[in-house]
Amino acid sequence: MNHVFRAPLLLLSIAVLVSTSCLSAQETKLITEVEGISEYRLSNGVQALLFPDDSKPNFTVNMTVLVGSRHEGYGETGMAHLLEHMLFKGTPTHNDIPALLKDRGVLNLNGTTWLDRTNYFETLPAKDDNLEFAIKMEADRLLNSTIKGEDLLSEMTVVRNEFEMGENSPASILMQRLMATAYEWHNYGKTTIGNRSDIERVPLDNLRRFYAKYYQPDNIMVVVAGKFEQKEALELLEKYFGSLKSPDRELPKTYTEEPVQDGERLVVLRRVGDVQMAGVGYHIPAAADPDFVAGEVLSQILGLEPGGLLYKNLVESGLASSASTFNIPGHDPGMLLAFCEVSKEKDLEAAKNRMLETIEAVGTNGVSEDDVKRAVQRLLKEREQTFANTEAMAIELSEWRAYGDWRLFFIHRDRLEKVTAADVQRVAKAWCVPSNRTVGLFVPTAEPVRAPLASQPKIKELVGDYKGRAKIAAGESFEPTPENIDNRLITGELSSGLKLAMLPKKTRDSRVNLVGKLDFGTLESMRGQSTAAALMGSMLSRGTQKMSFQEFRDALDNLRASLSFTGSPGGLQFSIQTKRENLPEVLKLLEQALKAPAFNESELEIVRRENIAQMEQMKSDPQGLAVTEFQRVFSPYEQDDPRYAPTIDESIERMNSVKVEQIRELHKRFVSGQHGQVAVVGDFDPETTRAQLDQLFAGWTSKEPYTRIPEPAITGLAGKRTKINTPDKANAVYIAGMMLPLRDDHPDYEALAVANYVLGGGPLASRLADRVRKKEGLSYGVGSMVQADSQDERSMLMMFAISNPENTEKVVGTIDEEVGRFVESGVQAEELNNAISSYLETRKGARANDGQLAGLLLKNLETGRSMQFQAESDQKIRLLTKDRVDAVIKNLLDKERLIIITAGDFEKANSSAGDGEKK
What we know:
Layout: H1 6-17, E1 29-34, E2 37-41, E3 47-52, E4 58-65, H2 79-86, H3 97-103, E5 108-113, E6 118-125, H4 130-144, H5 149-168, H6 170-182, H7 196-201, H8 204-214, E7 220-226, H9 230-240, E8 276-284, H10 292-303, H11 309-315, E9 322-328, E10 334-342, H12 348-365, H13 369-388, H14 390-403, H15 408-416, H16 421-431, E11 437-438, H17 459-463, H18 482-488, E12 490-493, E13 499-504, E14 511-519, H19 530-539, H20 549-558, E15 562-568, E16 571-579, H21 583-595, H22 601-618, H23 622-633, H24 648-657, H25 660-670, E17 676-682, H26 686-697, E18 720-725, E19 732-740, H27 749-761, H28 767-775, E20 782-788, E21 795-803, H29 808-825, H30 829-848, H31 850-863, H32 867-878, H33 882-892, E22 899-904, H34 906-913
Parallel strand pairs: 3-7, 13-17, 18-22
Antiparallel strand pairs: 1-2, 2-3, 4-6, 4-7, 5-6, 8-10, 8-11, 9-10, 12-13, 14-16, 14-17, 15-16, 19-21, 19-22, 20-21
């Protein structure tokens, strides 16, 4: 045990708690208000944003500390990220923060670290004293976190485990190497996760000094967003954040500037894998620079599917199986990145050259105004969806504050709407030049063309007294109890036979979610149709008989709408998210896609290549191999049975064998509007929407019979352990589970669900997380889940963990030991009460999410239930006792029946251990 500095830390905590708390309301200044967001500045420098939204019964508190990998010095790489982990360990006043938040019904919590900032956020139900708790807790851990030696030792392995996750991904490690090569001096070239030796060797005193230096009230922004009273929130911020003592030091500013790149650079990565990749990066201006927005539009024009230039020149031509682009914005000049995946049998050099030619030709040939409009519409749609989601917006503000000022989010939108084709060409001509790219070989040039030096924008002058636009539509305050939902719910049946559920309510930005499922076929008629059914879903959004793929995608973007399809043997699901005024037009697009799909052979080939490329990557990926094997154990059917789980090689073979005629015939014979369900939640007109849906599906019939394909539990399986060796993969995967013959209406289900929540279902606070992650430091991610069917007596209890291959056997043994204790001793009374309260809040939070609520209503239609079923289930959970839960644990959780699968580089791990037997 390391006791160094423990007493000083406690003294510091006491000093902070008794520091002056006489901050008056007059000392807090209202700085500005932009589109519903109010900025205040407390007397000690704390920047606070209030963003009220009464449409959901939750709020989010997000604390952003302006420190990221950009601020790290020699030997400090990864320190900002490591501190993010340590701040969840707690303070003398708030011990074990995840557990405290779980007990209050937390709906979402996390911390993230990036180039310019670190943030901590939690979303809680807007009830009781949750707001005060969240603000008080964040203010406390800002200064008083117990950075203890024993916690650092255990968390070190967890962070190293996270580091190794990235090492497993060829795309991730290639981007890391590319960035490191592109930046010679600036810290943007250093990955946020840090250098392995820095992570493992960081002195505790250094970490504490870093914490004390940057975690101060003059270096943070606190956002409170969601349902709350502004006066109360401001008073709580003044009470807990405003009372913190201002630091005596003046925080130093980073000043390293990356020189203009003076020649092409090359990086070659050689590792185990099954798909070739090529990438290229170009230095671009900072996020606040006026030219950055044109660079973002350029990235979209290059990478959008299917109209993107790289998609057309690489994917449609067959040179690559996929192509993508994205920007890395920052406080300082960032990067424009492009990547492509190339099958083994294809020419990587040819694909790389075509990628470079396509990008750099924009500076010479330009782009069309239609291309710009398409890209802008896509970006505006994404921004509107973020702004309509209070939690997402609260987190998004962290990024823009880190770039210089949160109001840049709106200024960037204003600039985005004014981008022209000339702007895009000018930016491409300046920045997308050979001397500014990282990829390929160095070529001496008599007259090199170099990019201009990017200057740092003057943020204060830029934002000035910017006020933005009018606030978007506010949603109503709707408590998502089963009773309230049932009281407002409109149910019925369309003339075609489809069941319908509609829940109209006012939502933020007038958003509406619509989901549906069309049922078809029988067990016998769907034999051999699994891959064709899945591809049918993928193909429905890739053009109709009236519109090309590009035209269809443009129409959705122009309507600020998302429309997706998922196909499976016996079912076709669709999902819509849009705004109230656009729903009628989106439903017309849905009708085209469902009734008159194009099913173009050329598009099928593209989808086929994309799927096969993903499958090829799975052949050497621990997680992909483990999940596939796990699915196969519980699906012991004949190969043509639609419930059969194929191997990866079988999936590739099936993908290659499907013809477009098979998909057309499947759609023509089976898909109709006779059987299925549709649910709509949000801001819409019920009468108009019902009439349009009735017209959409009326008269669309099929002569093929429909009978739901049953999926009963596979019982009688004996427990076993399977090891899969994956050479040269730094991360290992553990999956364990067992199947139970019960539905979600079984008398034992609620007790099983809560028991799972205690065991491993709670966010960061559970038996497994406390033991495997916090105490032993063996895994970055560990937990459990229960999935229960609503129609078949089939439930799955699963546990999962990731770790270093050297620690896999420790993970297996530790989880086995913890499960054994759980079965033997059951739950503790206080632990059970906290779990019941938190689990019920989680369920309530799911009902507050319109997309999830629409899915629940869809399931109710399918099973013939009302929300009364959920109300009764909630009540059963409230009445659970320790004896009842303990009995279910002992009766259902049998360690001897667990199917355990581990995958990783165990040969290397055994070799490193020196005395382990190779398997």
